[in-house]
Inverse folding.
């Protein structure tokens, strides 16, 4: 089976083409998955001047890049076959595509120009992010996926973005005789626990069995990645803030007592919820109380902020792991690229819960990408002819 995956939930346009063997029940979690193409285009430099992602600009940039990126992925996968003469849409096809792209006439024009000139590629299905995310951005991916479904007469599979982050952490490279990238999915031993941390989400999710999720806790205000971005802005750093705070924190002097102590919000709340708005506000007031903060002062604040956020995430996750007697902990989302968070989870779990296996995605798979959406689509395989963007789509009810 070959699947084309589309990811447009925020400010990355991700297109991936995967190949694997399937059965009537879909693929197994140990299946060998060959990556024929995995393309990613980020908008971070465009949004840097806003200090965060501007939804309408994200939508515009997705609409400009998605079709050329699909064509490029088809070329990479050796599936790009030009026709001598471009296809002419049947009236029924034209009406269906016109309805799909009724709010995106420019995207429709690009779609017709680029993709009607190609032979129908040997692809069996399309997976697309349906949510959560920025709805204007999500719609670009969904409309394109549904239009391809009509044009190529293949099914479209809606995927939950957060499930994509979970499966991305379970991917292990497979050695092959060729240079092609391939993975297999490491089997989960249930119950398992997932901590999903990104610019829009901070959630602790229990996975009692295959395909089932229960949200144990979530942020009550800012997501941890959002807090990193806002604190970075206070410190005069650029977007995205997470990597910049980490770089600055490494310059802080090593001391046992922090120069500017910050709170550990909800550390002892007795539940698994999070809150980072107060921590962000504490940084703001700390900076206001310093007259002309030096670069070392800022480095100390960055380090203490990073230490505080990390301590809360680790403490809550370990408490949930102990309470629910899980065998595995899975970290997912863009914030897992943070070195402090990765190192602290690894060392703390090795010391306190040595029998629990920890899964952390490779850094290139921690950010939003089409590959994770394709894998999640292969695992789910439930198709839909009327996918709607859902900016607050949940894995499960809390």
């Amino acid at each position: 089976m070959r699947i084309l995956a589309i990811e447009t939930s925020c400010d990355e346009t991700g297109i991936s083409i995967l190949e694997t063997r399937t059965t009537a029940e879909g693929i197994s979690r140990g299946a060998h998955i060959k990556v024929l193409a995995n393309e990613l285009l980020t908008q971070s430099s465009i949004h840097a001047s806003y200090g965060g992602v501007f939804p309408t600009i994200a939508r515009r940039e997705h609409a400009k890049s998605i079709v050329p990126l699909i064509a490029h992925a088809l070329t990479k996968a050796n599936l790009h076959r030009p026709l001598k003469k471009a296809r002419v849409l049947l009236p029924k096809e034209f009406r269906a595509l016109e309805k799909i792209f009724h709010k995106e006439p420019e995207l429709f024009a690009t779609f017709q120009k680029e993709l009607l000139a190609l032979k129908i590629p040997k692809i069996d299905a399309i997976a697309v992010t349906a949510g959560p995310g920025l709805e204007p951005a999500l719609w670009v991916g969904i409309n394109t996926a549904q239009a391809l479904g009509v044009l190529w007469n293949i099914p479209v599979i809606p995927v939950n973005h957060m499930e994509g982050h979970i499966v991305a952490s379970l991917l292990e490279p497979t050695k092959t005789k060729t240079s092609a990238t391939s993975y297999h999915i490491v089997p989960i031993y249930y119950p398992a626990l997932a901590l999903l941390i990104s610019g829009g989400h901070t959630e602790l999710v229990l996975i009692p069995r295959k395909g089932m999720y229960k949200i144990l806790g979530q942020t009550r205000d800012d997501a941890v990645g959002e807090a990193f971005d806002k604190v970075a802005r206070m410190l005069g750093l650029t977007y995205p803030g997470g990597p910049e705070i980490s770089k600055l924190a490494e310059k802080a002097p090593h001391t046992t007592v922090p120069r500017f102590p910050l709170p550990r919000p909800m550390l002892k709340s007795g539940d698994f919820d999070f809150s980072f708005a107060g921590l962000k506000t504490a940084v703001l007031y700390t900076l206001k109380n310093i007259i002309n903060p030096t670069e070392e002062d800022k480095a100390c604040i960055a380090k203490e902020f990073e230490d505080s956020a990390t301590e809360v995430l680790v403490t809550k996750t370990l408490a949930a792991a102990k309470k629910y007697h899980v065998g595995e902990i899975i970290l997912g989302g863009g914030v897992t690229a943070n070195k402090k968070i990765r190192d602290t989870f690894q060392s703390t779990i090795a010391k306190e819960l040595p029998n629990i296996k920890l899964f952390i995605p490779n850094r290139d798979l921690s950010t939003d990408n089409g590959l994770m959406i394709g894998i999640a689509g292969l695992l789910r395989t439930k198709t839909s002819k009327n996918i709607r963007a859902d900016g607050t789509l949940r894995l499960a009810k809390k």
